[in-house]
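I'd like us to work through together how a protein chain folds, taking it slowly. To get us started, please write out a protein record for me. Go ahead whenever you are ready, and we will take it from there:
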Amino acid sequence: MEKQQLANNTKVDFIDPQVDDLLKHSIRTQLQSLLKAKLTVCERQKLLQKSFVDAITLVLTDLNTVTHQELVSAFETMYDNAVQSMAMAELSQEVLTHQYISATGLIMSPYNCKHTIKDVYRIKGYARGLDKAIQGQLKNKPSINVLYPACGPFAPLLLPLLSYYKETQTIKPSQIQVALVDIQPGAILTLKQLVSDLQLEEYVSLIEEADATVFEPQNAIDLLVLEAMQHGFTKEGQLSIAKHLVKYLSLDGWMIPQNVSVKGMMVVGETEFNQQWKTQEYSHSSNVGNEAQQDRVELGEILKINKSTLLEMQELELEDGIKVIPANQIVLPTGIEDMGKRIFAVYAHIETFAQEEVGQYDSGITHPRPDTSVYIDLKPKDIEHTHFVASSGDTVQFYYQLTGLPGFVPVKVQGIV
């Protein structure tokens, strides 16, 4: 008996910290729900609806008059209320935390996806661009269809905007119909609860559990809204999803973001990722230091993703069945004395629509991603198959692999003089 008790105690002592955090989250969410149980369903829904409208009202306001702290506070309130709807959906721990690698990229768990709704400047860039795109489409037609694949449990780029339209009566359900698609069962359960709580059923024509890379919409799409990426344009299946669904756009349909430009640079790691942020309250494109910018060696654009390039993209299939997209060639600059001490980094600049954007460091998806497997003017002591070694003046061809771990593969072009 004593041995059994000792064994049980040992299991408790060495519990996985991640599992413990998830358990605490589950308990906290349930307790919060109990505290809010004193509210009637109507009162809870009104708080939720108001928080969504308040947040997007600030976003659509002239941002020179709105402080960063005001935005953060409004978005935290929106998040807190959205999490209550998730709690009401009664997701099991397994459904809440299920995360895996699919054939085209990382499928994040509903638990991890829920934080996106707090990403102020990501949502700001998308919501402002989307609002302009919706208004622009409605100038030429009485109603439009919007598809939002891989939308996660809160569909944060669109549901707050729809709440604003409903409250202000600026755009009515007869003018816009939205389809929400996600592969995660937990996301679908939460979406149904959230749309019901927000009373947006008249705006949302479809909530479907499906793989966005094979989903076939029943109607031509006027606006395709997509954000399924990580920093450095890696891990998630943004390109695979976009490449599949772009063909369902109407002739005059638009993709949001309108353009994604992925670029490479060589940086001094200490300056880029540490020193320039020591005196800043938060990371943002407007807070990037002049010294850090001047210290960069920009390599140029590696890949451009928009409606035109997606329709023209050609896949190459390798012998092992892996598919890649040929990206751009870059000639590595010469005359940089400390090139061998620099780190290669990839970053994305996102133009959502009509000059609205998510700039460098505005969001986790636009933070430069260092790639320490790339060596320029430096040869590692022990070269592994994952290392890429090149010299100043070399021409490098980039490819983008469409696998469960999507990302860029650089290849040195031989024979270039």
Remarks:
- Residues 263 and 300 are 6 Å apart (CA to CA).
- The mean pLDDT is 90.
- The radius of gyration is 23 Å.
- DSSP finds 13 helices and 18 strands in the chain.
